[in-house]
Amino acid sequence: MTNEDKGRKRSSAVSGDQLDVLVAKAKSGDVGAFEQLYHLYSRRIVNYIYRMTGSRAEADDLTQETFIQAFRKLDTLKENTKFQSWLFRIAQNQVYQEYRGKRPQIDSIDEEDGPELTDAQKLATPSGTPENQILASELRELINQVIGELPEKYREVFVLSALHRFSYQEICEIVGRSLASVKSDIHRARVQVRDRIKAYLGENYGMSNLL
Amino acid sequence: MECRTCCEALTAFLDGELSGLERRAVEEHLAACSACQENCESLRYSEHLVGAALDEMLAPPSWGRIVPRLEPRPSWLDLRRLFGWAWQPVFLTVVVLAVLLVPGFLENGGGVEDAELEMMLSQYVRERDEMENLHYGIINTEPVGWVYYNPYADHSSSERRNPYSGE
Question: Which of A155, B1, B102, B160 could anchor a disulfide with A150, C-beta 3.0 to 4.6 Å?
Fold first, then answer.
């Protein structure tokens, strides 16, 4: 997947110019413009924080704190088009303050009172035998667990790369590390996750339509 | 390219983060090495599974919960924010003090004790002069016609001419 593919998959809801205008308006105190930014990025932020903390309640609280901090410090953002990276940096700092050194205990997303699945999620649920559906559910739980067990510095770059499809350069800006370090950690994280999944699936590894 | 180098670069290769030269080198090696090709496919598959499992399922908190906590940026003119409920008496106090003090300040040039100070200073000078006169034996403090010896003047006359005699 090239960087262009990543960008298309990530979001094409707003262009660079539109983002520049929105952020400029928000900087001048336009709460309506900031609301639009909130609706554009809040889902990504809450899911990122959830992957880092493992708690839906904390993800909710820290997402609010992230956007409140962002509104207060909007004047410190020099390049409006880098709003997303800057916002993720604030989210990361919020997570660090709360969860430095702690491993997340991932809340199950499959609870009955959990959030309603989007249409994409429903479509992605494999049809077929109940056994396949159970396997898919267990596999999803395993993947969440494996990611939660990654060392913190591997987990943060892995989530930004695998879930949010940031480029390596953007990830460097968010986590504040060198390109070589980010590249190396992403690779090690991917290998660890791959090995765990492979060990779990055994001969089923490589089957299509598992998830 | 060695297998170890290729394996290290596989993730970046799959993410499209390699330069053109590096990507071609990896592609050439993968075409020639079945083990590395299998490794690459294995990583690609796990990336697919992870991507499907990590979809953004959580909904964010509603905007209505954020709005009350968005504080407006502080302004030095916003007295209500600075002083809270007491902004009105504080503001009135500042205005009254300004009205009372500023005109007096401008009239006196900055001090109400200048006249007294001037009087004290002149009295000091007078007393100092009297003390000096006593010390040097100066009795007559009337000004004299000349106070220095002019070497170019005509001093041939034994008697000095009194310039004040009217002659």
Answer: A155
Asked whether the whole model's pTM tops 0.95, one would answer: no
Q: Report which residue type is found at B124.
A: Y
Task: Please state, in angstroms and rounded to a whole number, the distance separating the CA atoms of residues B58 and A60.
Answer: 9
Distance from CA of A100 to the nearest CA of B (A): 22
Are B15 and A168 inside 8 Å of each other by CB? yes
Look up residue B112 and give its two tokens: 């109400």
Other C-beta atoms closer than 10 Å to the C-beta of B31 total 10
DSSP A56-117: HHHHHHHHHHHHHHHHHTGGG-S-GGGHHHHHHHHHHHHHHHHHTTPPP-PPPS--TTSPPP
Chain-chain contact of A6 with B16 (C-beta, under 8 angstroms): yes
Chain B residues within an 8 Å CB radius of A72: 71, 73
Interface of A with B in 89-128 (CB under 8 A): 109, 115, 117-118, 120-121, 124
Q: pLDDT 10s digit of each residue in chain A, 211 long? A: 444 444 434 444 678 888 999 999 999 888 999 999 999 999 999 989 988 888 889 999 999 999 999 999 998 999 998 999 999 999 999 988 886 656 555 555 544 434 444 444 444 444 556 666 777 788 888 888 898 899 989 999 999 998 888 999 999 999 999 999 999 999 999 999 999 988 888 877 776 666 6
